[in-house]
Design brief:
By secondary structure, the protein is mainly beta. It folds into two domains: about 140 residues, Pnp Oxidase, Chain A, CATH 2.30.110; about 120 residues, no CATH class. It has one helix and 21 strands. The strands form five sheets. Strands 1, 2, 3, 4, 16, 17, 18 and 21 form an eight-stranded antiparallel β-sheet that branches. Strands 6, 7, 9, 10, 11 and 14 form a six-stranded antiparallel β-sheet that branches.
Length: about 300
Amino acid sequence: MVALTKDIFYGIHTIAILDRDNGFLPYSDGVLEVVGNLNVNISKELVNLSGGSNPYFFASEDGASSAELQMTVRQLNQSAMRAGLAAVVTTVSSSATGTISSLVNTKGTSVVSATTGIASISLLAGSTAEIKSGYWVVKAESSTTVNIYATTNLDFLRGTDVEVQDSTLKLLAANQTITTGGNTDISTLGIRLTGGSGTIGMTSGDVAIFRIDAPHGGIRQYSIGAVGQTNPYVGIMAYGQTQADGTKTQIFMPRVKLGGLPVNFTEKAFGEFEITGVVTRAVNPFNTAEEIVADVRFIKGA
């Protein structure tokens, strides 16, 4: 029998997410390498003609067609978060001494005050080894004292060991006094609270929060769900694994709308994310005389 041509898919190598508005330039970190699969389900509706008692159709014609994308990845990056969730990306440079956010009022307005509360929060010089990463809560215990409350014990053993005092997650055995223009150092967290310029007078029960990051190699933060954020149309280019005979496979989709993605934390497991989307018709940049949904290529080994 004559040898027949066989186009065979095998494996997956990478998936690239491309910025359509920038000439299909890859987004920053725009290639997904830890990938499980990519499936493009191209389906066609059939419109059938029936009537009378005949059990079979008299005719069938093409109806609407659709192309839906599903891919499983085991990593996230800027491109996936922008395309899948319209996330706004903020980066923080690496720091050998750690970073700290501002202290922000979240209940009442008296804890953070330039005059009558805590004017500022900062990392305590020389206490880098004590910094414990996490979100921390400051509660006014009286008009002049505060205590710190934990949201995790993740870094409790970093530097000097700490432990919460009771089920309220209060961290410090003694409340800390805030004084006019004075510094209140909490050495076991590596932070300093500086009092306001006037008479300290906080409202008991008011709350503020802050965030600390111990020395790190850089931070990438994704803000999701802000008003006005819209998932962009993107291009997708996926490559199969090179086969034993040198054959390579590719699929290019010039216009894809991704429909969100999960963010999951799983016990003793790497995160796995299923991303879905819709593939729409668009001009083929390699042949502008045609519009396509996808371009599939099999490059045979030499």
